[in-house]
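User: Could you check the structure of this?
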Amino acid sequence: MMDHLLKESVSLIDHKIKEGVSLMDQLLKEGVSLMDHLLKEGVSMMDNLLKEGVSLMDYLRKEGVSMIDHLLKEGVSLMDHAVMDHLLKEGVSLMDHLLKEGVSLMDHL
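Assistant: Sure, the predicted structure tokens are below.
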């Protein structure tokens, strides 16, 4: 009787161990599968964000270059305008001076 109970207990324990090992094995496989999936998703998401970031940086760089180019052209245009204005004033001043000198010379003669 004791021998039979001992065998039944060992058999039950053995069965429970096998079930536990099977369950742990299944959970391990599921965990590895889930981690693999999450890793792939994470890599895909990081790749997407990297591409978007590079695209955004490229866009901002082009916009910045365009803006600097525009400001440079505006600055040159403004400088050209200021130089022309200055030369015009100098020319008018010079012509006025020569006119006065000519009038003065004619008066003198």
